Amino acid sequence: MAAFGRYLDVLDALRENCPWDKKQTNESLRPNTIEETFELADALMKDDKNEICKELGDVLLHICFYARIGQEQGEFDIADVCNRSADKLIFRHPHVYHPSQVGAAHPRPLPYVPEEAETETETDGFSKAKTVGQVLENWEQIKLKEKDGNKRVLSGVPNSLPSLIKAYRIQDKARNVGFDWEDRQDVWKKVREELDELETELQKDDREHSTQELGDFLFSVINAARLYKLNPDNALEHTNQKFIRRFNYVEEHSIRVGKPLTEMTLEEMDKLWDEAKALEKKAQ
Predict the structure, then answer these.
(1) Which of 127, 168, 230, 244 could crosslink 123 through cysteines, CB 3.0-4.6 Å?
(2) Is the pLDDT of residue 38 over 80?
(3) 114: pLDDT strictly greater than 90
């Protein structure tokens, strides 16, 4: 708490005395916030603990800065942000807190109840959630009951999310209300069906319909990943990094021998690519 208070004091001083900080608005900060969030995401993918700590601080700065601007406008402050978030978490976790704890300064969790036991603190059937799946199913239904919550199941998916992540979140939210495959293996029939439709449109050289079918195919592959509990965004980023490492190996060789990539044959580049691949496997 002392560290957080010190942090807010520093931000207050910057807002009042630094020319750059003085002129910032919600709109001017937004692009930087997006950049800082992606930098945190990079650090998390690398599992670089030092960078994670650093980037968390950068994201925290933006959260506190927006709250400071809200305070200046007489709308809300950082305490409101914390309290509203705490109340939302309490309300959405009736298996941990009784709803009467919303607004409490020091909320007390419910006593632990073994999975095989029945709890006496039943709240609309939600307090019996014992598994991750049950918690997620309850989460979406509880959100629809909130006064300022989402009015539709999919309305909580931000429009500005990257398309791959958005597709995963759309499918996940639909799953939480029961709209999903009964047997995950059935999804492969859909994936093959979408691939066949894509190939058909590509053979027709129909760009518009090919684009639509490509989207359907990608959506089905993301759906398959979700069903098998794989994160498609993380998986694709791992592949991106793998491609970068191997391509850099090829390029470094071309620089070392003084032969530009544009003058190398595909066979030469493939051979170097296989070398990079073999070195990676050897290092594992």
Answers:
(1) 127
(2) yes
(3) no
For 116, 120, 126, the CA distances from 110, given in Å and listed in that order, are 16, 10, 13
pTM value > 0.70: no
How far is Cα 188 from Cα 136, in angstroms, rounded to an integer? 25
Cβ pair 241, 276 in contact under 8 A: no
Residues 33, 63: Cα–Cα separation, whole Å: 9
Segment holding 54, helix H or strand E: helix 49-72
CB 137 within 8 A of CB 177: yes
Tokens at 99, concatenated: 């709803």
How far, in Å, CA of 26 to CA of 250, rounded?
44
pLDDT digits (tens, 9 = 90+) for 234-254: 899 999 999 999 999 999 999
What letter would DSSP give residue 261?
A: G
Distance CA 202, CA 262 (A): 29
Is there a contact between 206 and 190 (Cβ–Cβ < 8 Å)?
no
- Token pair for residue 31? 């692009």
